[in-house]
Fold this sequence. Notes:
The structure is a homodimer of 320-residue chains. Chain A is of the alpha/beta class. The first copy, chain A, has helices at 10-20, 33-39, 57-66, 70-74, 84-96, 110-118, 130-144, 155-171, 186-198, 214-221, 244-253, 262-276, 286-292, and strands spanning 29-30, 42-47, 77-80, 100-105, 122-126, 147-148, 177-181, 203-209, 256-260, 302-307.
Amino acid sequence: MHTSTTAPTFADIETAHERVKPYIHRTPILTSGILNERTGAELFFKCENFQKVGAFKARGAFNAVFSLSDEAAANGVVTHSSGNHAAALALAARTRGIPAHIVMPDNSPDIKKAAVKSYGANIIFCGPTQHDRETAANEVLQRTNAAFVHPYDDARIIAGQGTCAKETLEDAPNLDFIMAPVSGGGLLGGTALAATSMSKTIKVIGCEPEEADDAFRSFRDGVRYPAITPPRTIADGLRTSLGELNFLIIRECVSEIHTVSEQAIIGAMRTVWEILKIIIEPSCAVPLAVILEQKLDVRGKRVGIILSGGNVDLNKLPWQ
Amino acid sequence: MHTSTTAPTFADIETAHERVKPYIHRTPILTSGILNERTGAELFFKCENFQKVGAFKARGAFNAVFSLSDEAAANGVVTHSSGNHAAALALAARTRGIPAHIVMPDNSPDIKKAAVKSYGANIIFCGPTQHDRETAANEVLQRTNAAFVHPYDDARIIAGQGTCAKETLEDAPNLDFIMAPVSGGGLLGGTALAATSMSKTIKVIGCEPEEADDAFRSFRDGVRYPAITPPRTIADGLRTSLGELNFLIIRECVSEIHTVSEQAIIGAMRTVWEILKIIIEPSCAVPLAVILEQKLDVRGKRVGIILSGGNVDLNKLPWQ
């Protein structure tokens, strides 16, 4: 179940940016002398943890909801999501004044369930697998005739997420690398389209947990594999499988995909908390883990790192 | 033991600002739609948790170290501090290339001990009371002839800390209130001098834990009381007693001092972590706790809040 078969273009990302600007934050880019010294690179951290709903997902969701015709919008929107896309779609729908029906796995973090509820969405709980989600979402779709907005395998979503890399390159030009985590591929796909359109020399690097390495294997073999079910990674935002449209874009525009261990992810997350003094969720720490584990040689390079979100259950920190 | 008897003027704060600018960050001011909605005010959070050494203390320390003559500086500097001033003085001394001797209570948080060590300072451990600290510092002073830089009862330190409020009012003008935590009174004193010099209408609000309420009682009665020994507050940066020079300034320029419970401090700290997605230490949360506990009516007002630091031991979070 996906909702578009054609990849967006950079013009779609520019249109998306104009459409979502009134609703989203232009998030800051942080730098750290200590981390630059430690890595030998110049690192630029794009802080989507400060974004509306605490994650980049606000970009795609606002783009999708505000690109619907009034007629289509009236029936509301429906999606399935492990959390941040759900909260983002709920907020975008509330902002437009239309209903949102959200299918969520019942093992989603409490903080993410609470966020979706607080935006007034109708939640439908389901099991943890991709199949469980899609079955439940289909049932809602039949019943409500709402517009389905897939969390990543959707051109409107990919174009929206691409606005994050666009801002990063506008505010920190001449990057050698731009790094983003990959799960379904909405963020990495949008990042790759924006970055390779704005720079002829930039390399786009996907970063993934070893425990959920379907994008790494798919990219290596040229075949789209499903994710291991259920993935055991702590990075709860990175447990879904690479989308079809996303895979097409990633094969075309991404240079490398690297994987890291759970321990490396937790260590990188803690490093960001301690040194940058900001809250990021585990999924967010994967690109820095790739650097700290020396999977990618960044010495002497200018590197953009998309910190994708900051929604963490503060009662369950991974180093405890 | 304090090192000056005359309060600084706003001109001293301006001079301090020019002196420290090359070495410190001009920290950002964050705002939050959710917190504005919840409080009915417009809140402006000045993020000194992003400052060098993770706290506003860098401002006073750099001002003190770089205002020494070359001759005086050559013998190094000495201080006693529960942590952030120690790290700040160590960094400022290393930056100027002179020795730093730091007397620290042996119950200081590990993260603060490690920070001081990492800046190459010579650490002398002592007991938890004010008397223990002063005895140990005096001994070092006799031995080394270093320049003593008191953590707060010092005109150079107060002027340096005042640069934080100066930046806040430059970047968020027309504030009705500016709020800061108070312990020794370096930050609150500097804030009060800067704010009342820059605005005729602003009210300066000191914020203190109930468990370490010497500034509240001193301000109310017009008599400088020592802190309860040893104070039981979780706000480890707010355990020392109000300084003499600081008390003079605070009596003159501060409008109100409010106190809050430990539970309110922990709740406000968690609120900042969850909503602003930034790491602040418990001391830092006291002003927001005053607002959330409705000790001060901020409805319809523009309120500057100085978030003083972000050095927390991530293995020991107060809500666990």
